[in-house]
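HOLO CASE FILE
Compound: protoporphyrin IX containing FE
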Amino acid sequence: MTALGPDADPLDALRKLRGDHGSVFTKGRGEIYVSDPALAKEILANNEGLFRDHSDFFRIRTGMFGPRSTQVEIGRAARVLLRRYSQDHADELPARVAGLAPGSDWPDAGNRLVYEHFRPALIGDAPPAALRETVDQVVERAVLAGARDRYSRLARHRFRARVRRVLCAEIALRRARPTGEPADLLDVVAHAATGRTRDADLAEVFLSCLFAVAGSVGFLLGWSLYLVGTAAPEQAHPAWVVREALRLWPVAWQFGRTPSREHQLAALTAKPADEVVVCSYLVHRDPAHWSEPDEFRPDRWASGAGQEAFIPFGWGPHACTGAGVATQVTETLVGLITSAYRLGVAATSSRPQVSAALAPPRFHLRLDPVSLAEGR
Ligand code: HEM
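Model generated. C-alpha cells follow.
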C-alpha cells in the first residue's frame, strides 16, 4: 500500500481533493488517485496491460515475490486450507465468544480472538515453543493497531532479525521434509518454494498471511462491533453489518499500481514514474452509487444496490483469495456476539487509526448478556 503523506487526517484530505477536483486527481507529485468505481475496476483488472503486474500481498523487501505462478499457487492453497480449517473448527467459535470479558479493549481484543482461533491454521497444532512464542509476539508488536510505534527503531530492527531467524529455521526444516498435504499456512508457503526461492522471502509471505488473518480479519470484526455499538441499529443481519463495515471503513483502503507505459487516465496523463492509487475508501462513498454514503445503514444490503462500487477485497486477477473465509468467520462472530449481548461502546475518538490498514478507533466494549439486559 502507498505511504501516507503528512496530512493530519489523510481521509479528510482525500475527500476534499475529490470534492475540489473530481474522481481522478493528483495528490503530491506523481500520485494519481482514482475514486471512480468503473475506472478503479478497469485499473485493477488491467486487461490492456497498462499497469505492471502487482500484488500488495506478495510485496517483499526485495521487490515482488514470484514468479506469478507461485503466487497463484500460494493463494489457492491458502484458501483451501483456511476454508477447511474454518469448517472443521466453526463449533469452537461460541466458546471463544463466551470467553470474552464483560469489558474489553478493542480493536486489540478482536485481533487476539481471531489470531487465537486461527493459530493452528497458521503454525500447526503443536508448534515448537520458539516458533509459537515468536509468532505470538509478532501479533503483539506488529499486527495490533499502533503497536509498532511503541518500540524504538533499534528494537524493531532487532525484533525483525529475530523473527526472520526463527521463521527461516522452521521453513528450512519444512522444505527438507517430503511435501504432502499442507498442515498449516507455513507449510503452504514452504511447499510452494522452488529450489532457488530464499527462505527469507518465504518468511515474508508467511507474515503477509499472518497480517491478513490476525490483522485484517481482526480489524473487520472490530469495525463491525464498533458500528453496531455506536449506531445501535435495529437487530441487523450479521452479513449486512459486515458488508456495511467493509463499505464504510475498508481495512484495505488503497491499492497502488505502476503504469507500464504512458497513457490517459480521465483528464490526466499517467506515466511509468507515477503511482496510480485506487482508493476503495472513496469508491465506497461515491454518492452516485450509494445513498447517504457516510451513514451506517446495514439494511441497504437487503436489496444489494450499489455493489458495482464495492471493492473491499480488490478486483480482477489479484483480488483477495481469503475473502470468503474472512467474511464468513466475521459474520459468524458478529452473529454470535450481537445475539448474546447488548453492546456498549465507549471511544475517546471516532476517527479511524490510519496506516497501511484502516483500523477502528480504540474503544472499550461492554457486553451485557441479552437475558440480563432484557430483565429476563
Ligand atoms: C478482512 C480481511 C481481508 C481483507 C480486507 C483483504 C483485502 C485484500 C485486498 C484488497 C487484496 C488485493 C490487493 C491488491 O490488489 O493489491 C488482497 C489480496 C490477497 N489476499 Fe486478502 N484480505 C483479507 C484477508 C485475507 C486472508 C485471511 C487471506 C489468507 C491468507 C488473504 C489472502 C490474500 C492473498 C493471497 C492475496 C493476493 C492475491 C493475488 O495477488 O493473487 N487475505 N486482500
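CASE NOTES: Residues 55-256+320-373 form a domain with the Cytochrome p450 fold (CATH 1.10.630.10). The pocket of protoporphyrin IX containing FE is lined by residues 44, 55-58, 71, 75, 78, 82, 209, 212-213, 216-217, 220, 251-252, 255, 312-314, 318-322, 325-326 (CB under 6 Å).
CLOSED: yes
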